[in-house]
Design a protein that fits this description.
The chain has 256 residues and is of the alpha/beta class. Helices cover 36% and strands 25% of the residues. It has a 7-stranded parallel sheet, with helices on both faces. The protein has a 3-stranded antiparallel sheet with strand order 1-3-2. Strands 11-12-15 form a 3-stranded antiparallel sheet. It comes from Eubacterium limosum.
């Protein structure tokens, strides 16, 4: 049996049973114990399973299709969002053409932006308002407004973003997974995120620790196609898949 075939069988078995022993897999695959152990090690290193003593368990990915509204999200992980936002803002330089995704984590970024000689595009209505009040040059694409996230969505929004080539892009996410990448519950928002994401020279995911090992309904980007800015990273397997900037508590300055 080919390695790829064994991997597929192992993954399906772990997914359905949640836990499996080496002995069960040797009987199922008709392979030696040493071969099964090597396969489990390889799959563990890819982040697809958890290798444990005597077998393997499913990765603790939490699937979610629901989404909290903006008012609720503002109160969640507020300190972490400030730390992430301040660090992200420091990456913006003179002449940059910046996309800022809708969402509460990316909104925290705007509070710390000081570069006035950059141009900003956002699909977040509240984001655009804050940027305008700070006197920055900002564009908002057309479309219709999604109430729960205050984000512009629709084919008109996607079409408007298609013509842009951003130097930097900052995105929120509802889930981060080695297999599913960056995910969000709403297909219309995913289309907007994906279009902007693919048009960024450098894309950054701004994420508090709660988003790791979660999968939402629609993928808008592969795990390795962006740098993650976060705090207090718990699951270090993600370092194998993409660059991660972990912001320390001491990096937050009280200059607002």
């Amino acid at each position: 049996m080919l390695t790829e075939e064994r991997f597929n069988i192992i993954l399906k078995t772990v997914e359905s049973k949640k836990a499996v022993t080496v002995q069960e897999l040797t009987e199922l695959l008709g392979s030696s114990e040493s071969t099964v152990r090597r396969d489990l090690t390889a799959l563990h290193e890819m982040g697809l399973i958890n290798k444990v003593h005597g077998g393997a368990t499913a990765v603790d990915n939490s699937y979610t299709t629901s989404e909290d509204d903006v008012a609720y999200k503002h109160g969640q992980y507020s300190e972490e969002k400030k730390r992430i936002g301040q660090y992200a803002a420091s990456l913006i330089k003179k002449g940059d053409f910046v996309f800022i995704d809708a969402g509460t984590t990316t909104e925290a970024l705007i509070d710390y932006i000081s570069e006035k000689e950059a141009t900003y595009v956002t699909d977040g209505l509240g984001h655009a308002n804050k940027l305008l009040k700070k006197g920055y040059k900002v564009f908002i694409p057309g479309g219709h407004l999604r109430i729960s996230t205050e984000a512009m969505v629709g084919e008109e929004t996607v079409e408007a973003l298609r013509k842009y080539n951003f130097t930097l892009g900052f995105f929120g996410t509802n889930g981060i997974s080695p297999t599913a990448g960056y995910t969000t519950p709403d297909v219309h928002e995913a289309m907007v995120k994906k279009e902007a994401f693919e048009n960024c020279r450098d894309a950054y995911i701004l994420s508090d620790p709660s988003k790791f090992n979660k999968i939402s309904s629609v993928t808008f980007g592969d795990i390795g196609s962006a740098t993650i800015i976060t705090t207090d990273l718990q699951d270090h397997k993600y370092l194998k898949f993409t660059e991660i900037m972990e912001v320390d508590r001491n990096d937050l300055h009280s200059d607002l």
